[in-house]
Amino acid sequence: MLKKRFIEALVSEDIGRGDLFSRISESRDIRAYLIAKSDGVFGGREYVEVLADMYDLALSWDIRDGEPFKKGHKLLLVSGDSKRILSLERSMLDMVLHASSIATLTAQYVKAIEGTGVKLLDTRKTRPLLREFEKYAVRCGGGLNHRMGLDDCLMLKDTHLKTIDDLDAFMQEVRQKIPFTSKVEIECESLEMVKKAMQAGADIVMCDNMSLEETGEVVAYRNESYPHILLEASGNVTLETITQIAATGVDAISSGSIIHQANWIDLSMKVE
User: Fold this and answer.
1) Is-catalytic flag, 208?
2) N or C: lower Cβ tally within 10 Å for the chain?
3) Which of 122, 134, 185, 187 is catalytic?
4) Domain Quinolinate phosphoribosyl transferase N-terminal spans what residues (predicted)?
5) How many CA within 13 A on the CB side of residue 5?
């Protein structure tokens, strides 16, 4: 249902009061194909399939979400009424371009830490009203989702901590008021803060903008004193630094850049 509402809004934005070409053209059955003009990792199939079902288009796929493709690869064949296909061309392309671009960059990050056992996570740094779509694209690239919103995990960031006078007492109240299955993550900038967070009962501790040496110290302390607590590293994560961060022994690394730094790859549609 969410995908359908998203697609309805997307199509409405582009078509507006009606495609002017459709006013003067005659309907005919056509076939068009989606072709890659650069290499990448594919995303967007789930959404294109919903769009096709809504507008009575037939699809023949040669790729699945999460699979790599090369320049020249014909990814999809679309069959149906010419007016519908031409009216929906940009909406279809934009979804696939956006999702595949995020999936492609995410896959590069995942490959950089392959074999380490460390998980790559996204963040809530998503474009307004596109969170579900962009986090889906991260999954296409092999990453995992962090919080979808403020309602599925309690994260205490530095701004929250400034309003809390007694962390131990606050955490006792938290356990009485949030769902039993919800986890609590506390953002920390020093080993001293990490110790307080772990002693207070955090499920996850974030090493925020720590140096590699500091993160290593946190990992050693966790392993010795609180082995059940998960560690997440975040801040200044790039393709050049992520391998070193993973080597510290954290459980996960989160990065907003896999979404907001993704450059659009090149795909286009051609009519046979």
Assistant:
1) yes
2) N
3) 187
4) 24-100
5) 5
Q: HEC profile for 175-217? A: HHHCCCCCCEEEEECCHHHHHHHHHHCCCEEEEECCCHHHHHH
Domain that holds residue 221: 115-261
253 and 140 in a common domain: yes
Of 90, 124, 183, 195, which residue is the catalytic one?
Answer: 90
User: Is 90 exceeded by the pLDDT of residue 1?
Assistant: no
In the structure, what pLDDT confidence band is assigned to residue 236 with cuts at 50, 70 and 90? confident
Residue 2's pLDDT band, with cuts at 50, 70 and 90, is: confident
Query: 104 and 119 share a domain?
Result: no
The answer to pTM > 0.85 is yes
Q: pLDDT tens digit string along 186-227?
A: 999 999 999 999 999 999 999 999 999 999 999 999 999 999
Paired tokens of 171: 């955490």
Residue of 3, 31, 124, 125 marked active site: 125
Is residue 157 part of the annotated active site? The answer reads yes
Q: Which of 37, 157, 175, 270 is catalytic?
A: 157
Catalytic residue list contains 125: yes
**Tens digit of each residue's pLDDT (9 = 90 or more) over 141-168:** 999 999 999 999 999 999 999 999 999 9
What is the token pair recorded at 34? Answer: 């989606």
